[in-house]
């Protein structure tokens, strides 16, 4: 029987050999960075959705943690790759649990990946426009920005709910371009989700970087199609 961890792992891309980035910073005007798994350690989110939330759901409904996991996994699959997946208000209403409060209880697990701050400084010194672009719900975003203080580095922080679509949806990227006015072929996007990179590629973003080490508790998994990095120090050249 597939448990939640196995479900989460099966949703990721098949791991391949590492394709190394090869580009010139002179050709890039705009840098877009995902948050969870890219800038921040995804262990927090994996633990929350796969362990912590099932435990509380099982207590609420007086069922086993295993049964809670199965029920939640089915609910996750129903809204995967949509805005509802990251919508804490949707999940709070659907599950009758206060998800922002539950996230606050374990916010000590929120952490920034190695070399992230150095890379943000590097981009600013290179005079690149710097945007944080995330599917995270605004309440989750607030918790993480308050904990990490990374928001100050960016020209703008954009939630998918502001755009009206998730990053996995093709409609997201033209809407984002209207919002930010970036030139696609001169834009670099770093994200730990290959489907996001694939959709951005279809829109015409010029430089796509896959983050192989999204969680400190899981092994690196390299994209079979896009250049991958373990840490941002590999781009500081």
Automatic annotation (TrEMBL):
<keyword id="KW-0378">Hydrolase</keyword>
<dbReference type="InterPro" id="IPR023214">
    <property type="entry name" value="HAD_sf"/>
</dbReference>
<dbReference type="InterPro" id="IPR036412">
    <property type="entry name" value="HAD-like_sf"/>
</dbReference>
<dbReference type="GO" id="GO:0006281">
    <property type="term" value="P:DNA repair"/>
</dbReference>
<dbReference type="GO" id="GO:0005829">
    <property type="term" value="C:cytosol"/>
</dbReference>
<dbReference type="Pfam" id="PF00702">
    <property type="entry name" value="Hydrolase"/>
</dbReference>
<protein>
    <submittedName>
        <fullName>Putative hydrolase of the HAD superfamily</fullName>
    </submittedName>
</protein>
<dbReference type="InterPro" id="IPR050155">
    <property type="entry name" value="HAD-like_hydrolase_sf"/>
</dbReference>
<dbReference type="InterPro" id="IPR006439">
    <property type="entry name" value="HAD-SF_hydro_IA"/>
</dbReference>
<dbReference type="GO" id="GO:0008967">
    <property type="term" value="F:phosphoglycolate phosphatase activity"/>
</dbReference>
């Amino acid at each position: 029987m597939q448990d939640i961890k196995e479900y989460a792992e099966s949703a990721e891309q098949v791991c391949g050999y590492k394709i190394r980035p090869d580009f010139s910073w002179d050709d890039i005007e705009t840098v877009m960075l995902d948050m969870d798994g890219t800038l921040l350690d995804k262990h927090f989110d994996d633990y929350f959705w796969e362990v912590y939330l099932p435990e509380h759901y099982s207590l609420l409904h007086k069922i086993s943690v295993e049964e809670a996991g199965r029920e939640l996994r089915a609910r996750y699959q129903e809204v995967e790759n949509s805005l509802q997946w990251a919508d804490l208000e949707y999940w709070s209403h659907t599950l009758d649990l206060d998800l922002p409060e539950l996230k606050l209880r374990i916010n000590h697990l929120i952490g920034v990946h190695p070399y992230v701050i150095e890379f943000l400084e590097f981009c600013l010194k290179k005079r690149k426009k710097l945007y944080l672009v995330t599917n995270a719900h605004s309440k989750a975003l607030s918790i993480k920005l308050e904990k990490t203080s990374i928001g100050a580095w960016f020209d703008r922080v954009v939630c998918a709910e502001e755009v009206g679509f998730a990053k996995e949806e093709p409609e997201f990227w033209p809407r984002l371009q209207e919002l930010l006015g970036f030139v696609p072929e001169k834009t670099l996007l770093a994200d730990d989700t290959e489907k996001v990179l694939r959709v951005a590629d279809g829109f015409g973003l010029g430089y796509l970087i896959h983050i192989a080490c999204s969680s400190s508790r899981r092994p690196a998994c390299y994209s079979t199609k896009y250049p991958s990095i373990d840490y941002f120090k590999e781009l500081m050249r």
